[in-house]
Amino acid sequence: MTLAYSSSSFGAAPAVKTDRLNTAYLPALDLHLVNSSADQAVAKLLSPGRRRAFFMNAHCCNIRRRDPRYAEAVAGADILLPDGIGVELAAKFTGHSLSANLNGTDFVPQLLQRAASMGKSVYLFGGRPGVADAAAARLVYDIPGLRIVGTRDGYQGARDTQAVIADINESGADVVLVALGVPMQELWLHRHADDLKADLTLGVGALFDFLSGSVARAPEPVRAARMEWVWRLAMEPRRMARRYLTGNVSFLAHAGLAALRRKRLADAQQRALDITVALSALLLLSPLLLLAALAVRADSKGAAIFKQARVGLNGKTFTMYKFRSMTAAAETRRAEILNVSDRDGICFKSRQDPRITRVGRWLRRTSIDELPQLFNVLRGDMSIVGPRPALPCEVADYPPRALGRLQVKPGITGVWQVSGRASVGFKEMIEMDLSYIQARSFKLNLQLILRTFRAVISGRGAY
């Protein structure tokens, strides 16, 4: 049955300049979730085009693991919105940080506020008899200009599926909210996606219960503390105990194990890449290595290989190898020239460093001085790709955020190295390294290795 609800005037919603929507792949959940603000998500959902959106919380993820039909419905959705602290914690297991918690009870009214300002109409389907009507009345009261063109309950009113679809389509609704509960609402929307004419369809869970007042929401301080699930458990202990106690523990355990398995796989892939590239490079470049060593010895006194303590994975120090590009007493003179660094921040780098030898300047310009670090890679101290290894004295002065670059093995090449090397400031270098750590993958490492050749040829920032 189509009923019309509307309020007398249209209110202006805040303008949103863009409908661009970022998503993040969360390996621990094997899901692509929205990683944008609520305003950006609203703008995208209401932009031209047809789309289906679901909210994903810990309970949804548990059902998805057990129910292949629901997993198929989730895979068919156009947009998945992160809902709840459980998903947020799962994201952090793999170093991700989501922009916003887009729980349906807060997000949908914000979306409808914007829909009202655009003149879009809404249909409510689901809930016990009378609940959708009460929710509609509350929404119209709260949101000036909102047009609700129909309601239908999820019990007797849902028995004739074709009648439901016909009622929704005849209402001309632009937005359809379906509150049949997880997983029924997602399965229903997935099954009838081609039959519904509305531009936007959403599964909204218990939203109608909250809006109608049949289920009380947690007080604001409880919601602000991200503990609304505790409130719901206290209100409905029998119904919610399994979902929130057993379910949350199961969800976090599976997400944690998935993150651990992915880390082990990523580490194994990176180690295989390291060994393959390092051994191949040493075999192919052995004549060049020999010539470089002879040139260093001929140009100045001292050993051809320079050894220096550097900080690696988890702050552990190791001995790093390089072709010596400075005079033999260079380390004792470092304090004298710290004030002539060309780089802002902690890491010292000077284009006019007087300690650099003639051959050393050429070695640095071509990056040949770094090649002995291939032995560090074989030993497991370093990787081919990663943040550059810092000196202990530099790490001692690191701000807390910079310590994050010690989460992975240091590398011979990386984002910083292919983006300008010494011409990149310290703060910018840190952000590059942290972004790499969050996004690193076998494919990304291969891309950075290939880009290294172009960086070496250009010589930008190499001195």
Automatic annotation (TrEMBL):
<dbReference type="InterPro" id="IPR003362">
    <property type="entry name" value="Bact_transf"/>
</dbReference>
<comment type="similarity">
    <text>Belongs to the bacterial sugar transferase family.</text>
</comment>
<keyword id="KW-0270">Exopolysaccharide synthesis</keyword>
<feature type="domain" description="Bacterial sugar transferase">
    <location>
        <begin position="271"/>
        <end position="457"/>
    </location>
</feature>
<dbReference type="Pfam" id="PF03808">
    <property type="entry name" value="Glyco_tran_WecG"/>
</dbReference>
<dbReference type="Pfam" id="PF02397">
    <property type="entry name" value="Bac_transf"/>
</dbReference>
<dbReference type="InterPro" id="IPR004629">
    <property type="entry name" value="WecG_TagA_CpsF"/>
</dbReference>
<protein>
    <submittedName>
        <fullName>WecB/TagA/CpsF family glycosyltransferase</fullName>
    </submittedName>
</protein>
